[in-house]
Amino acid sequence: MTGVTPAVAVVPETRVRLGELRAFVRRNPTVVVGSALLLAIVLMATAAPWIAPGDPQSLSPAMRLRPPSKEFWFGTDMYGRDVFTRTIHGSRISLLVGSLVAIVSVSCGLVIGLVTGSVRAVDSVVMRVMDGLMAIPDILLAIAMMAVVRASVNNVLIAITIPQIPRVVRLVRSVVMTISERPYIEAAHSSGTPFRRILTRHLLPNTIAPLVVQATYTGAAAVLTEAGLSFLGAGTPPNIPSWGNMMAEGRSFFQIAIWIILFPGMFLAMTVLAVNLLGDGLRDTLDPRLRRCL
Amino acid sequence: MVAVARDRAASDHLSRTEGLDSAAECRIRGEERSLYVYLIRRLFATLPVMAVVGLVVFSLLYLTPGDPAALIAGDLATAADIAKIRQKLGLDEPFLLRFGKWSWGLMHGDLGVSIFSNLPVSRLIGQRLEPTLALATTTILFAVTIAVPMGIIAAWKAGTWIDRAVMAFAVFGFSFPVFVLAYVLISAFSIQLEWLPVEGYTRLRDGFGPFLANLALPSVTLGSVYMALMARITRTSMLEVLSDDYIRTAYAKGLTPDRVLIGHALKNAGVPIITVIGVGLALLIGGVVITESVFGIPGIGRLTVDAILSRDYPVIQGVILVFSGVYVFVNLLVDLSYALIDPRIRY
To answer: Is A224 on the interface with B (CB under 8 A)?
Structure first.
């Protein structure tokens, strides 16, 4: 080993790494495609001020309802606003809503789920409440919440997060209950391990994989719900260029200026598709039993 | 989830038949009795769920920050208007008293009164019931007749391009927002090709052809998400079943693929598929609001949209109760059908 020069030792390692990467891509195409697409959209959203430097709110009625051209890549809407600029800036709202809802709902659901899974006394009460919440279709509950508060991004976030929490709670609770039956938990308990330690070393790590997958699906659902709410007029305030708002405004003109609806719609579909692909791929990767039989 | 249910049911069954004289006779009597017990137990389980739904929907008005009456009255309202709305919403009475009165009214079919039209909510919903029911029925029929065979074929030809195509379609269908798909379909079929009307609704009694023509695009739009979900679950469930030994035996016996797939595999794979029909109904209900809005169908979804814009909270409350009730009822039917399809599930 001492005779081997450093240069020779480095090159085979890099080649092996590349080979591993290629094998990973071939075995998990959905994760790669999904995450690549999502990454592209996130980059686009972050670089919005540089890609689309105009002001998304600037009106110029003289230019209203122009079809896509060299000057206005996606055309203009009924107030003369550039659809391209608004679409790119709109991605920020959708991604913000998607990621925040996913993070908050998973965190809250994790805490509640761990508690109900471990403490039998609260279990039946909390699960009844969760079942009740799940019986109301998500978008209707969000609509009801938005109907009694002022329209703002914060309120939309809360309105979309709350219907998603019961699903996470159910997931975490089922994991906790399944794991708690296992012999090694009994062993840990009987050898005097404090509950806190069992929680952090045994229960929590087992919840991570299903939670990550659930987080992606929640994110996708959140993006769709936000767009739906804005489309119906119960979502983000109309001055904010979210994709749902753009499509709501473009409705009346869709027969003569379909680009107002088309481009935000396509971007919305792509974003949700990317997140769903990522979620599917992660689920297949993280749970070997669900992998496609070849 | 299905595996857990099956295991639990199997162990219950064993403990019930232990120590009985004639196994066959007691099995028959035991099964009949357990079906009724299951039915009653399941029925009673829906009550707490609906109670929670009612409580949630009722308390939203009280739990929100700020003054909902002022919000509903709008920016130009006077103090007198706000007071009137407070009284209409019942916000001036104590919470428990109001909840008691409201629940009592609910049990008598009184869903409240709309703030803006002063009509009873139950009447408003009753007027709009038919179009929504028609849309929901055509959508479910359409989705099930296309998605389930698709899932079966995808599972049968697992790993081939057919399988990948069906799965790709499923992921796309799940990701495409309902309203985007609606406009794409309208611009393709109604505007460019002019095969179908752009919007509107024709009653069944006014002609079956126009009835179907008006409902075709909305059903496809609404059904796309439902179909995607169902095709996927059908495929997954069938794959699980097809790897079992008795399928291999069936093929070895010389049965044709259609007999094996439909006669044996589908029956055993049936539980998750029927589950998703029930659970996917929530997606359907969510989509109905948007679809009716886009296609101009005068159903309950449109009622909800109008109520949103005018912040007519009693109407929204009533619609949520009705839709949740339907969802709970359908899932009850789904659970009961498990007991019929799979005799092991009767706990």
So the answer is: yes
What is the model's pTM?
0.82
- Is A132 in Cβ contact with B53 (below 8 Å)? yes
Does B107 contact chain A (CB < 8 Å)? no
Which chain A residues are within 8 Å of B64, Cβ to Cβ? Answer: 145, 148-149
Of B159, B293, B311, nearest to A232 by CB-CB distance is B293
Q: How far is CA B212 from CA B136, B148, B277, in A?
A: 13, 22, 23
Give me the half-sphere count of Cα atoms (radius 13 Å) on the Cβ side of residue B80. Answer: 0
Which tens digit of pLDDT belongs to each residue from B230-273? 998 888 888 888 888 888 888 888 888 887 777 778 778 888 88
Condensed to tens digits (0 to 9), the pLDDT of residues A81-108 reads: 888 888 888 888 889 999 999 999 999 9
Inter-chain residue contact A293 with B309, CB threshold 8 Å: no
DSSP codes of every residue in chain A: -TTS-HHHHHHHHHHHHHHHHHHHHHH-HHHHHHHHHHHHHHHHHHTHHHHS-S-TT---GGGTTPPS-SSSTT-B-TTS-BHHHHHHHHHHHHHHHHHHHHHHHHHHHHHHHHHHHH-HHHHHHHHHHHHHHHHS-HHHHHHHHHHTS---HHHHHHHHHHHHHHHHHHHHHHHHHHHHTSHHHHHHHHTT--HHHHIIIIIHHHHHHHHHHHHHHHHHHHHHHHHHHHHHTSSS-TTS--HHHHHHHHGGGTTT-THHHHHHHHHHHHHHHHHHHHHHHHHHHH-GGGSPP-
Mutation site, A131, A133, A134, A140, interface B, largest B CB count within 10 A: A140
Look at residue B157 and give its three-state secondary structure: coil
* B73 → chain A, closest CA residue: A148
